[in-house]
Amino acid sequence: MAAVTLNNIAKQGKHGAAMMPIIQGVGRAAIEIAAVLRSAVFRGALGQAGAENVQGEQQQMLDVLSDEIFLDEMRSTGFVCAVGSEEQEELLVIDEYVHSDYLVLVDPLDGSSNLDVDGPVGTIFSIVKRKTDNSICPHVSDTLQSGQEVIAAGYVLYGPALMMVCSVGVGVDGYTFNSSNARFELSHPNIRIPESGGYYSVNESNADKWTDNMGANLERLKKESGLGMRYVGAMVADMHRTLIKGGIFLYPADDKNPTGKLRLLYEAIPMGFIMEQAGGKAMSRDVAVLDIEPESLHQRIPVYLGSKTKINILLSKNAK
Ligand code: AHG
Ligand code: MN
Ligand code: MN
After folding, report:
1. Which residue's CA is the closest to the ligand 1 atom numbered 18?
2. Residue 20's domain is classified under what CATH number?
3. How many angstroms does the Cα of residue 76 sit away from the middle of ligand 1?
4. Residue ranges making up the domain that contains 223
5. Is pLDDT at 217 greater than 80 in this prediction?
6. Among the listed residues 166, 170, 169, 168, the one whose alpha carbon sits nearest the alpha carbon of residue 188
7. Are residues 135 and 40 in the same domain?
8. Contact assessment for residue 184 and residue 301, using Cβ atoms and an 8 Å cutoff
9. Based on the structure, what is the number of domains in the chain?
10. 34-52 per-residue burial string, b: 16 or more CB within 10 A, e: under 16
11. What does the alpha-carbon distance between residue 96 and residue 204 come to, in Å, rounded to a whole number?
12. Considering the chain, what is the average pLDDT of its residues?
C-alpha cells in the first residue's frame, strides 16, 4: 500500500487544503536545514554569527542559515504574504506574494545551544490568516493573533530521524522523513498525550529564582505523581518526549526572566496548539496559552505544557 505523505493534510478539516502547500514548504525547509546541520562542521558553519538577534541573544551561524532557508521556502509556496521570525526584528513581507492570505510565524532553529554538542534541535511554526484586507501590504498587527485564531501549527525535530509533527486543528499527526524516497510519511497518526506516566522537564537550576510559588508546586507534583525527570534544553525535543511519553514540560518565570523565557508567538502558541490538539493542556500561570492576546512580536510568557492531570496538579491551589 502506498505510504501516506504530507499530501494527506489536504483532506483534513476545513483548512487542510489551504494549509497543505505551506506545510509542504515547511517540509522542504526541514530537509534543507537537516542537510545544513549535518554538514555544518565541514562548512565552518558551527559557532556564533557575530550578531545579536532582536532579543539580545547571540545568533549562531546556523540560526541565520535556517532562517534564510525557511523564508525562501515560504516564498516558494506562493501562499504566504509575510513571515514573523524569532531571528528578525521586523515582520518580513514577501513582496512577490504580498496579496496572499497567510502569515507564518517561526522559530527557525530551536535549542541552538545544543548545536555544539550534536544534540537535538528543532523548528517551530504556526500559520494564521491575515486580518488586514489582502489588497494592502500585511502589517505586524496581522501576526498579533491569539492561539484561538491559529489555523495550523507544528514542529520539526532534527533527531536520529527527521520528523514533522503538525495539526490543522483536527488532531495531531507525526510524519517521519523517509530518505529512500525523500518523502515525509505518516508514522505517528493521531498522537494523544498519555494521562499516566512520563517525565517532568524543566531547568531546575533556576528553582531558587522561580516566582509564582513554582518551587512548592513542582515539589508537590513530583511527590504526587512519581514522575521521572528529563531535560534536553531544546523545547522541541522536550515537547516531543512529553507528547509521546506523557508528563509535563515547563519554563516558568523567574527573577531573571520575570515574564518567562519562551516566546509567545514562536514557541508557546504553536506548542500550546499542538498540546491541546493532542488532548493535553497548555497554561501560562492560570491562563490558557491559547487565550492570550499577543501585544508584540517578540513577547515572552511563562509556559506549562503537559497532560491535563499533571498540569492540574501543578496548578492546584492547595499548594503551600
Ligand atoms: P532558542 O534556541 O530558539 O533560543 O530556544 C531556546 C529555548 C528552548 O528551546 C528551551 O526550552 C530553552 O530555551 C532552554 O533554556 P535554558 O537553557 O535556560 O534551560
Ligand atoms: Mn526556541
Ligand atoms: Mn531559535
Report:
1. 203
2. 3.30.540.10
3. 29
4. 199-315
5. yes
6. 166
7. yes
8. no
9. 2
10. bebbeebeeeebeeebeee
11. 46
12. 96
pLDDT at 278 over 60: yes
93 plus 214 within the same structural domain: no
Is the pTM of the predicted complex or chain greater than 0.85?
yes
Report the CATH number that the domain containing residue 263 is assigned in CATH: 3.40.190.80
Q: What atom in ligand 1 is closest to the CA of residue 249?
A: 11
How far are the Cα atoms of 3, 40, 134 from residue 273, in angstroms, in the given order?
A: 26, 32, 26
Q: Which ligand is closest to the CA of 55, given by its number?
A: 1
Residue 320's pLDDT band, with cuts at 50, 70 and 90, is very low
Does residue 175 share a domain with residue 35?
yes
Q: Using the mean position of ligand 2's atoms as its centre, give its distance from the Cα of residue 58 in Å.
A: 13
* 191 CA → ligand 1 middle, Å: 24
Which of 57, 67, 105, 110 best tests ligand 1's pocket when mutated (most atoms within 8 Å of CB)? 110
Cα distance between residue 80 and residue 63, in whole Å? 21
